[in-house]
UniProtKB/TrEMBL annotation:
Protein name, UniProt field: 1-acyl-sn-glycerol-3-phosphate acyltransferase
Single GO term (MF): 1-acylglycerol-3-phosphate O-acyltransferase activity
Organism: Helicobacter apodemus
Annotated keywords: Acyltransferase, Lipid biosynthesis, Lipid metabolism, Membrane, Phospholipid biosynthesis, Phospholipid metabolism, Transferase, Transmembrane, Transmembrane helix
Residue ranges constituting the Phospholipid/glycerol acyltransferase domain according to the UniProt record: 62-177
Domain of life, source organism: Bacteria
Pathway(s) this gene product operates in, as recorded in its UniProt entry: Lipid metabolism
A Pfam family reported for this protein in Swiss-Prot or TrEMBL: Acyltransferase
Transmembrane segments: 6-28
GO BP annotations listed: phosphatidic acid biosynthetic process
Amino acid sequence: MISKIRAFSAVLYVLLVIPWSILFMYLFPKYHRKVRRVTASAFFKLFGVSAKIIGELDKTAQVLVMNHQSFMDVVYFEAFHPNDLCWIAKKELGEPFLYGHALKAPKMILINRESKRESVFLLKEAKDRLSKGRVLCIFPEGTRSLGKEKFLPFKSGAKFLIEHFHLKVQPIIFCGTRDCLDIGSMKFDNHPFSIKYLPAFTPNEENWYESLREQMQQEYLKIYQERKNVCMVE
């Protein structure tokens, strides 16, 4: 019951606060990053969300490659990353009125995976954001996973983009964010989750993308098992 009440409160926060955030971003586009940071930080403080951080964020990384479990993944980086982020998401997410404008107002990149011309659009939009000093954020799985042991297959779009611009990549692993917040199931248990920053690098090997997925999968399993063992003890 407490979990559902907390989840309802989170949805209420979104419905009451996000429209104002969107309005401010449209009215004051130069300050959209500040508006997003304040909105996300307030969410963390209001609900007392906590995370275990492993490793260090590399502020010079041009693209963040992450697994995706929950809406909490996005909220965390919007609250705490020091740079201006640009999330790359599927175009369908821009269709719902509220969520759509939350992505469009700060000029996130929305792509249509079914279009053969999408690679040209992606490169054009990414070049524009990078020229403005923004950090690209990609979920290579292409959607949210169930937060279990296995990653979904990585889509090729991230590889194509990173290689084209020779970007510096920082892999980041989320574990437990779905256990913390699952809006789809209206569950907000607010369990502390884990975030692991892997060393940033600029790809120079042929099979780097496959190796990256394997590395992220292995590191994720370590954290997943540690969390599972702690829960069993408790």
